[in-house]
């Protein structure tokens, strides 16, 4: 793109000389006009915005310096070059303080003009490059900031960030209103199971943009990594949550021609209420298998259905999820049988309640998937999932449905577990071997270093290595003790300390168990 040049001089002959004396176009410039006065030059400037203005210093009404000052007020980008006689030279030098780029002495030498405008062109190109780079960096920073905020909101909704860490960020991002009062609206689009994640995200972004453009509400919104649109209402709008949710759903149905399930929480307060509101929306959406799809369902409606429960159906959910994650099929089946037996004993025959309780257990099992950025609907297909649960009419059918669907989760989890356990054992071995002779080395300390729990590490270690973790540590230590017994005169208790076993008696027991003889017998000469 050529740089635009405006020539200003009250003498036409001087303007013609500058215009005709240099091949502007061939050198990347465009003469956009000539002006005979400062006033006329400003009219050109305001319309055509030149990059370079070459002006005589001595003109009536508005001289070149006054023109330069007026141009400086209008644009920081435009470069002004002053043409001056020798007698105005010192006067012209003061023009540099007004942002004048350079000056040319009369009589005008075209080579001087050529050199000056060439330097200005290079400077403008470099400046444009910096400006473009700055804008790109600014846009990238803006996008990164959006990603950081979205990630923070997801952690907040799922209660995966400590309050003391979250509170300063809530203030920085201007989200303090969530602490006072909030309602969560969870919008779940009907997704194509075979669709790519990028397509589902694009659909969700389209919905979120539509909401932001058409509904003026006090809200904080983001796209969940499972592609749901999460909206937190604050201030007065919390009391109108269901009305707002219904209006949004209607707009999505009619304007975007899409169907969505919508869950609405109760009004919540304080920090703990933020994640509680989100969890309530998930439960509300699970009731769509009973109440129907493409509806707005409140947590109160979900709770009303669940109220039919006349017995205790709560189980150790944490251990149940652990069993699913680690593919303990027999234990998972026991949990399913125990859960459905509790419902059977409660004497509940309401089929809607049975479906709701099935979704309750499935939602717990599905947390294994969400940790890997996947939903149950994405794994088995939303339509199939709802169809299978909708078929439930008896506790027996509920039991079979749960085992069938959770089996899909177990298979998926097993495919991840194999890779994960191999990597985990490698990390554990690396840490053990580098700290083998430290007395503080225990199952607990190793589990802490590889960020897992002791029970899981113990199980996968034995599965991969064929021996328990503590057995492995003791075996390696006893092997080293045998080397020391053969190559040093150290006493048994000294060797025990060196290999990381602080209790000499325990060292003796481990030695006898592994080697088959006592330390004394081992040290006894093999010949008489």
UniProtKB/TrEMBL annotation:
Keywords: Coiled coil, Cytoplasm, DNA-binding, Phosphoprotein, Transcription, Transcription regulation, Two-component regulatory system
Keyword Repressor listed: no
Residue numbers carrying 4-aspartylphosphate: 56
One GO cellular component term: cytoplasm
Record-annotated Response regulatory domain positions: 4-121
GO BP annotations listed: phosphorelay signal transduction system
GO MF annotation list: DNA-binding transcription factor activity; sequence-specific DNA binding
Coiled-coil ranges (or none): 110-144
Localisation per UniProt entry: Cytoplasm
Family matches, as CDD domains: REC_YesN-like
Presence of keyword Ion transport: no
InterPro entries tied to this protein: CheY-like_superfamily, Homeodomain-like_sf, HptR, HTH_AraC, Sig_transdc_resp-reg_receiver
Stretches assigned to the HTH araC/xylS-type domain: 426-525
Organism superkingdom: Bacteria
Function, as annotated: May play the central regulatory role in sporulation. It may be an element of the effector pathway responsible for the activation of sporulation genes in response to nutritional stress. Spo0A may act in concert with spo0H (a sigma factor) to control the expression of some genes that are critical to the sporulation process.
Name of the protein in question: Stage 0 sporulation protein A homolog
Organism: Anaerocolumna aminovalerica
């Amino acid at each position: 793109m050529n740089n635009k040049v405006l020539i200003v001089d009250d003498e036409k002959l001087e303007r013609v000389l500058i215009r005709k004396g240099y091949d502007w176009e061939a050198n990347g410039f465009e003469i956009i006009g000539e002006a005979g006065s400062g006033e006329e030059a400003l009219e050109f400037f305001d319309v055509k915005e030149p990059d370079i203005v070459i002006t005589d210093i001595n003109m009536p009404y508005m001289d070149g310096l006054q023109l330069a000052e007026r141009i400086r007020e209008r644009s920081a980008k435009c470069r002004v070059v002053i043409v001056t006689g020798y007698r105005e030279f010192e006067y012209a030098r003061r023009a540099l303080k007004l942002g004048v780029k350079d000056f040319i002495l009369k009589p005008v030498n075209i080579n001087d003009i050529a050199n000056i405008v060439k330097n200005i062109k290079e400077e403008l190109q470099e400046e444009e490059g910096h400006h473009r780079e700055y804008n790109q960096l600014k846009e990238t920073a803006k996008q990164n900031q959006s990603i950081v905020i979205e990630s923070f909101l997801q952690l907040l909704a799922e209660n995966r960030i400590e309050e003391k860490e979250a509170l300063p960020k809530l203030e920085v991002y201007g989200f303090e209103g969530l602490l006072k009062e909030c309602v969560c609206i969870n919008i779940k689009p009907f997704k194509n199971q075979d669709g790519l994640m990028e397509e589902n995200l694009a659909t969700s972004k389209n919905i979120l943009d539509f909401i932001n453009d058409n509904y003026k509400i006090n809200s904080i919104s983001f796209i969940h990594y499972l592609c749901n649109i999460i909206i937190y209402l604050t201030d007065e709008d919390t009391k109108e949550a269901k009305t707002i949710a219904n209006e949004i759903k209607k707009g999505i149905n009619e304007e975007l021609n899409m169907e969505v399930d919508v869950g609405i929480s109760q009004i919540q307060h304080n920090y703990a209420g933020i994640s509680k509101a989100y969890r309530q929306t998930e439960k509300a959406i699970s009731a769509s298998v009973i109440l129907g799809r493409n509806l707005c369902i409140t947590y109160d409606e979900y709770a009303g259905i669940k109220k039919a429960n006349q017995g205790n159906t709560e189980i150790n959910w944490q251990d149940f999820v652990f069993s699913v994650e680690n593919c303990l099929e027999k234990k998972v089946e026991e949990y399913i049988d125990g859960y459905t037996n509790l419902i059977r004993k409660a004497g509940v025959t309401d089929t809607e309640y049975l479906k709701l309780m099935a979704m309750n257990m499935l939602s717990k099992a599905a947390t294994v998937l969400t940790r890997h950025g996947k939903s149950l609907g994405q794994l088995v297909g939303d339509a199939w999932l709802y169809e299978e649960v909708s078929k439930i009419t008896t506790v027996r059918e509920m039991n079979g449905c749960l085992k069938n669907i959770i089996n899909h989760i177990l298979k998926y989890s097993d495919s991840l577990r194999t890779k994960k356990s191999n990597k985990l054992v490698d990390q554990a071995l690396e840490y053990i071997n580098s700290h083998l002779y430290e007395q503080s080395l225990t199952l607990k300390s190793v589990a802490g270093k590889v960020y897992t729990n002791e029970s899981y590490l113990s199980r996968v270690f034995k599965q991969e290595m064929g021996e328990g973790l503590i057995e492995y540590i003791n075996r390696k230590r006893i092997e080293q003790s045998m080397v020391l017994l053969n190559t040093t005169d150290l006493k048994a208790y000294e060797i025990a300390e060196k290999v990381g076993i602080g209790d000499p008696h325990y060292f003796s027991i481990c030695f006898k168990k592994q080697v088959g003889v006592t330390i004394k017998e081992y040290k006894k000469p093999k010949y008489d």
